[in-house]
Design goal:
seven-stranded mixed beta sheet, about 180 residues, single chain, alpha+beta, 7 strands, binds coenzyme A
Length: about 180
C-alpha cells in the first residue's frame, strides 16, 4: 500500500501575559466547556475539517464518528484543560471550536482549531487561539505549542499572526 508523507510544523509561543484577551463582537459569543458539549464540539470539528487537508492527514477528522471518538479521547486525557476549550456560538448555531490540553513540560497544546467555512475570515480563528492561550496562562502555563500541516497556509499564517514560531519540522506517514 502506498504511503504518503505530510510535512508538518511544530510551532511554539511563550506566554508572558502580554497578549490581550480576545474581543468577540456581536453576534458571536463564547461558550465555556461543559460536559454536555462533547457532541457539539465534535459536530463543529466535523464541519470544519471534512473538506480540508487535515482530513487526509488524520482520516478520523473527515468522519462524524471519527470526530466524536476523537473529542471523547481528548476529554479523557489527564491534561485536558476546560479553561482552554471553547466554542463560539452565533444566532445560526455553533461556528468554531478549540480544545486545550496540558502536556508534559508542562506545556499547553492546542488541539483541532476549527471555524466552519461560512464564518471564516472574520477573526474567529484568531480569537479562539488567543482564548485558548489565555486559558493556558490562567492555568499557570508559560509556553504553548501546536502542530500544523505545512500546506495549510491559512492556519500557518494565523498562528504566525498570533506570535507562534516554527520550532520543528515533522513528517506524518499516512497509509493508502
Ligand atoms: C484555519 C482556520 C481556523 C482559520 O480561521 P479563520 O476564522 O478564517 O481565521 P481568522 O479570520 O481569525 O484569520 C486570522 C489570520 O489568519 C490568516 N489567515 C486566515 N485565513 C487565511 C487564508 N485563507 N489565507 C491566508 N491567511 C489566512 C491571516 O493572517 C488572518 O489575519 P488577517 O485577517 O488579519 O489577514 C480555518 O480556515 C479552518 O477552520 N480551517 C479548517 C480546519 C483547520 O485546518 N484548522 C487548523 C488545524 S491546525
Amino acid at each position: 500500500m502506498a504511503i504518503t508523507y505530510y510535512k508538518r510544523f511544530r510551532m511554539e509561543i511563550d506566554l508572558d501575559g502580554s497578549l490581550p484577551p480576545p474581543d468577540l463582537a456581536a453576534p458571536f459569543w463564547w461558550v465555556a466547556w461543559d460536559e454536555s458539549l462533547v457532541e457539539h464540539h465534535a459536530e463543529v470539528k466535523f464541519r470544519c475539517f471534512r473538506d480540508e487537508i487535515d482530513s487526509h492527514v488524520f482520516p478520523c477528522l473527515g468522519e462524524r464518528n471519527g470526530c466524536q471518538r476523537l473529542m471523547r479521547e481528548i476529554r479523557r486525557k489527564p491534561g485536558f484543560l476546560a479553561v482552554s476549550t471553547w466554542l463560539i456560538a452565533s444566532p445560526d448555531g455553533y461556528c468554531g471550536t478549540v480544545q486545550g490540553v496540558m502536556d508534559r513540560g508542562p506545556i499547553g497544546a492546542i488541539q483541532n482549531l476549527g471555524v466552519v467555512p461560512e464564518f471564516r475570515g472574520m477573526g474567529l480563528g484568531q480569537a479562539l487561539v488567543r482564548q485558548a492561550l489565555e486559558g493556558f496562562y490562567q492555568a499557570g502555563l508559560r509556553r504553548a505549542y501546536l502542530e500544523v500541516t505545512a500546506e495549510n497556509s491559512a492556519a500557518v499564517q494565523l498562528y504566525r499572526s498570533v506570535g507562534f514560531r516554527r520550532s520543528k519540522t515533522l513528517y506524518k506517514a499516512v497509509d493508502g
